[in-house]
Design a protein that fits this description.
The protein has 564 residues and is α/β, with parallel strands linked by helices. It has 20 helices and 20 strands.
Length: 564
């Protein structure tokens, strides 16, 4: 729909106008928890062609919308009610902010004539979301809905993408107006200047130990294909930033591994020794930068080319040798036009880096009757190349990120914000978006219980997610930190868990319990054959805290360090 061919309707309510605007902006699905504060919008959805997914808690709903934005590059849409609905949804808004994901959260609001009285569930959303959203506003008049919704879509995807929050006073939504829906304007990505690319070409020509680190958002399949072509043409080692491993085929001979938590020491040394780092699309924040030590701050000891779609991110932490404000695809297209030298000083370094990665990503043994290394090997042997692997946060994810080899763009959904509870709602969103693909969610016991109620959403939507619950009876990451800092003094990290398989049965899932390594492969094969929600409850030894060490080893090292 365009502005020229849309005609205003004099008798449309604010709720109807809003839903018309969503349709005009190509919204394919919305996620919500219903509330009396936006009943007029819920009513308008009855006559719309936009599917509505009803969640169980606003945090899960916001994470579903965020995952949709990650997968599509277009704003994921969530609706929640005022007050507690909005505060619950803040968890997903924070994920979108830290992960640079386009998202629009619509929040029901009190009537306009009740403002400032501390009315029922009244919140000032500009104050509440001001630090984590790109733009927060309240639509005061129904005739401004098209303007403000179009702006929300534009802001969410521009530069560094992120979340937008729009509050909807309930009396405004029943107000009539004669305005037409307006789609957000299409904006072409900025193209790197010829001067900038000439400087980049000179830096490449002078380099002896270059490496690229790719991450962030604003990627698409075409950009990833161009990245692979450039890596091959320039024989360049390419690493991926934290939870961005799907941007290049992990079996590409130029892939060097991921720059995240528990980094391969060989990759860390390679980046530290590099004389040119091309940081493409990512901010290299705390986790990827190893607490801001991989590149020195503010001026890296390596020459740094920082390419980011948000100009405000360039120079925010690192002062680069060359900064280029451009989306990944636009920069890579410009790079493709550069002249490659006949001889490359770094020839063979990608092969060595990839060999280091293959050795690092080969599963290792872990203690207990269930060996997490064997579990990951079983998954790798049976998972299709186009599978989508989803996880939340916790030490269990270390096995996924280290030993799963991502093969396709869009094959990874995980929060760089480290938000627990992300996995299940994101997996439901992924299965609704890609019903033809296997969606595997690996969740920890504490992680899952943050949003476990979204099993109901999966059941209602018939989302055939394969859920593997790694149960070690503790908040493992925090227990690990406790043993390192306060050895033997354990507080608030033990978990008494439900029988997850029985819970899965209650939601109509295929279930299995794994207490020995050899039980996992057949259970996983059965789950892949089922065309319904599946839950595999894996009971692991609490000692198996990371692929590299155990709780006892961490405790003993801490005591030795303290002289005890």
């Amino acid at each position: 729909m365009t502005v020229s061919d849309s005609q205003p309707s004099a008798d449309r309510t604010g709720g109807q106008i809003l839903v018309d605007c969503l349709a005009a902006n190509g919204v394919e699905r919305i996620f919500c928890i219903p509330g009396e504060s936006y009943l007029a919008v819920l009513d308008a959805f009855v006559d719309a062609d936009i599917p509505v997914t009803v969640g169980r808690q606003e945090g899960g709903v916001a994470m579903m919308a965020e995952a949709w934005g990650k997968m599509t590059g277009r704003p994921g849409i969530a609706f929640v009610t005022r007050g507690p609905g909005a505060t619950n949804a803040a968890a997903g808004v924070h994920v979108a902010q830290q992960d640079s994901t386009p998202m629009v959260l619509f929040v029901g609001q009190i009537a306009r004539d009740m403002r400032g009285r501390d009315a029922f569930q009244e919140v000032d959303y500009r104050q509440m979301f001001g630090g984590i959203a790109k733009w927060v506003a309240e639509i005061d008049s129904a005739d401004r809905i098209p303007e403000m919704v179009a702006r929300a879509f534009s802001v969410a995807v521009a530069g560094r993408p992120g979340p937008v929050v729009l509050a909807l006073p309930e009396d405004m939504l029943v107000e009539g107006a004669g305005v037409a829906p307006v789609p957000a304007a299409a904006v072409e990505d900025a193209v790197p200047s010829a001067v900038a690319m000439a400087r980049f070409e000179a830096l490449l020509a002078d380099a002896e130990r270059p490496i690229a680190i790719v991450g962030g958002s604003r990627w698409n399949e075409a950009a990833c294909e161009t990245l692979a072509d450039i890596a091959k043409a320039w024989d360049l080692p390419v690493a991926t930033a934290f939870r961005a491993q799907h941007l290049i085929d992990n079996l590409d001979p130029h892939y060097a591994g991921d720059v995240g938590i528990g980094i391969n020491p060989a990759l860390k040394a390679r980046i530290e020794a590099a004389d040119l780092v091309v940081l493409l699309g990512d901010r290299l924040s705390e986790m990827a930068s190893q607490s801001y030590t991989l590149l020195s701050v503010p001026v890296p000891h390596q020459r740094l080319v920082h390419v980011h779609p948000g100009a405000e991110e360039i120079g925010r932490v690192y002062q680069p040798t060359l900064g280029i404000a451009a989306a990944p695809g636009a920069f890579l297209e410009a790079w493709s036009d550069l002249r490659r030298p006949n001889a490359l000083a770094w020839a063979g370094s990608a092969e060595a880096a990839h060999a280091d990665y293959l050795a690092w990503s080969t599963p290792t043994q872990s203690p207990g009757a269930v060996d997490m290394g064997e579990l990951m090997a079983a998954i790798e042997a049976r998972l299709p190349e186009d599978a989508i692997v989803v996880n939340g946060a916790g030490n269990f994810a270390a096995w996924v990120h280290r030993f799963h080899r991502y093969r396709r763009f869009g094959g990874e959904l995980a929060p760089t914000s480290g938000s627990m509870g992300y996995g299940l709602p994101a997996a439901v969103s992924a299965k609704l978006r890609h019903p033809e693909r296997v969606v595997l969610c690996v969740a920890g016991d504490g992680d899952l219980q943050m949003t476990m109620q979204e099993l109901g959403t999966a059941m209602q939507e018939k989302a055939a997610v394969v859920l593997v619950v790694v149960d070690n009876g503790q908040y493992g990451t925090i227990r690990m930190h406790q043993e390192r800092e306060y050895p033997g003094r354990i507080s608030a990290t033990a978990l008494t868990n439900p029988d997850f398989a029985v819970l899965g049965d209650a939601y109509g899932a295929f279930t299995a319990v794994v207490e020995r390594s050899e039980e996992f492969a057949p259970a996983f094969e059965d789950a892949l054959k089922e065309n319904r929600l599946s839950l595999i409850h894996v009971k692991v030894d609490p000692e198996a805290i990371t692929p590299a060490t155990t709780l006892s080893a961490i405790r003993q090292a801490a005591f030795a360090r303290q002289g005890g």
